[in-house]
Design a protein that fits this description.
The protein has one domain: Alpha-Beta Plaits (2-Layer Sandwich), CATH 3.30.70. It is built from 4 helices and 7 strands. Strands 1, 2, 3, 4 and 5 form a 5-stranded antiparallel beta sheet that branches. A two-stranded antiparallel sheet has the order 6-7. The longest helix has 14 residues. With 162 residues, it is an alpha+beta fold.
């Protein structure tokens, strides 16, 4: 039985074969098709570094239909990161490729090393922006809000305190 996944991708380091982070993300968007059927791809966007990272990121998202279970998709995503040259290092540091499962058509999933929905996605415009471009009506199982609503809440201008 196949499932739908919303997957986020990011890069902020050059790759010897693919080049700039934007090109790494584009290559990864193509490579991930080996794991199922990609039905939607968001445009690649640039975002500011966070945490220990020093360089700007290129980010995108895709919708993947796959026969893989969430743990099997996670294992495949981690293998793909390693194949692109990612090495274990500082949390939130610079990386050639980051692949995260954000949402799943099955709702919630919790197991050692994997939580769906991704625990931080609601606070990350670099995930919600691309996700809203391709999966705006997907619902967050915790809040019931759509991806578009979560993105709007995160990015709407806030009045300055008086």
């Amino acid at each position: 039985m196949s499932s739908l996944y919303l997957v986020a991708l990011g890069s902020n380091r050059r790759h010897g074969l693919y080049g700039r982070p934007e090109d790494v993300v584009c290559a990864a968007l193509e490579e991930i098709a080996a794991l199922g059927t990609v039905s939607a791809r968001a445009p690649v966007i640039a975002s500011a570094p966070m945490g220990a990272a020093q360089r700007r990121f290129a980010n995108a998202a895709l919708v993947l239909e796959s026969e893989l279970t969430p743990p099997a998709l996670l294992a495949a995503a981690k293998r793909m990161e390693r194949e692109f040259g990612r090495r274990r290092g500082q949390r939130w540091g610079d990386r050639v490729l980051d692949v995260d499962i954000v949402l799943w058509s099955g709702g919630r999933w919790t197991s050692p090393g994997l939580a769906i929905p991704h625990p931080q996605y609601r606070r990350r415009a670099f995930v919600l922006g691309p996700a809203a471009a391709i999966a705006r009506d997907w619902r967050d199982p915790a809040s019931g809000l759509s991806v578009a609503q979560l993105h709007a809440r995160l990015t709407r201008p806030r009045p300055l305190p008086r």
